[in-house]
Amino acid sequence: MTATSAPAKKKLSPRKRAQRMRWINYAVLAVVVVLLVLFMDGRQLQQVFFRPDMIARTVGPDLLNALKNTILYTIGAFVFGLVLGTVLALMKLSQIRPYRWLATIYTEFFRGVPAIIVLLAFSLLPLAIPGLQIPLEPFGAVWTALGLVSAAYMSETIRAGVLAVPKGQTEAARSLGMPSGMATQRIVLPQAFRIVTPPLTNELVLLTKDSSLIYVLGLTAEAFDLTKYGRDLTNTYANMTPLVIAGLTYLVITLPLTYLVRRMEAKQRKATR
């Protein structure tokens, strides 16, 4: 006698399998939410992170001043980094080897060193160089330190944008008698910046968050950024509410920029179809 084989299990289709995984994820999420509701002390959470009297104390002219300073720190560092990053990108694309070597050493160094170390180094420069005064303190030091770091990242983005411009554009300009430098300035760079605008805007978002590192500097109350302002009140009143409010205020800057990045990326995708 021959043994009868067991019936083979019917395989699920990819659509059914994906649907099952979605339901499993929903179930896990529901369990997590239920556990949080059961075990969290809502009143204690509110007193530590969202205390009404501390919200009223935090929100006011000083918070707006800290927001303004954060925007100024970010914009100044971004402009500095954009200019220096463009120079570094062109140096990396240069036919002169020492330029390429210098640009490579710079980008590798500042991409590998934490931004907070660069900020601390700039804050200690007057001790190392007696009589040194950085203009527009503390803005000058922040713009320079964060700009040096962001330039290393932006240079790679700009270099990729330059390489994405068809070589025929430069060759056509050269055939019309335009010098190489003028062709780069008037034809290549404008097209490259249109290509890399979304990633550069994303770099602006990251730079906004990196500006929170300047709490390590000895700032006066007038020069506080959002993080320093929130930390100062949190330490004074031993409550996390000011720091939470300061963190949420960053969304005033980052959410519009993030939305702008998505819109620009969507337009670029449509243009390339």
Features of the shown structure:
MetI-like fold; 78% helix; 273 residues; mainly alpha; 12 helices
Summarize the structure.
The chain is mostly helical and 273 residues long. The chain contains 12 helices and no strands. α4 packs antiparallel against α9 (180-210), α5 crosses α7 and α10 (226-237) packs antiparallel against α11 (241-249).
What does this structure look like?
Keywords: Amino-acid transport, Cell membrane, Membrane, Transmembrane, Transmembrane helix, Transport. This is ABC transporter permease. It is found in: Cell membrane. This protein is mostly helical and 273 residues long. The chain has a single domain (60-272), classed as MetI-like fold. 78% of the residues lie in helices and 0% in strands. The chain contains twelve helices and no strands.
* Protein structure class: mainly alpha
| CATH fold-level topology | MetI-like fold
What letter string, H or E per element, gives the SSE order? HHHHHHHHHHHH
Q: How far apart lie the N and C ends?
A: 65 Å
**Total number of domains:** 1
Task: Indicate the radius of gyration in whole angstroms.
Answer: 26 Å
- The helix content, as a percent range, equals over 70%
Stretches where pLDDT falls below 50 for ≥5 residues?
none
Largest sheet descriptor = none
Q: What is the tally of helical segments?
A: 12
CATH class: Mainly Alpha
Number of extended strands: 0
Strand content: under 5%
CATH superfamily assignment? Answer: MetI-like
General shape: flat
> From the 3D coordinates, which CATH architecture would you assign?
Orthogonal Bundle
Domain ABC transmembrane type-1: 67-261
Subcellular location: Cell membrane
GO cellular component, one term: ATP-binding cassette (ABC) transporter complex
Keywords: Amino-acid transport, Cell membrane, Membrane, Transmembrane, Transmembrane helix, Transport
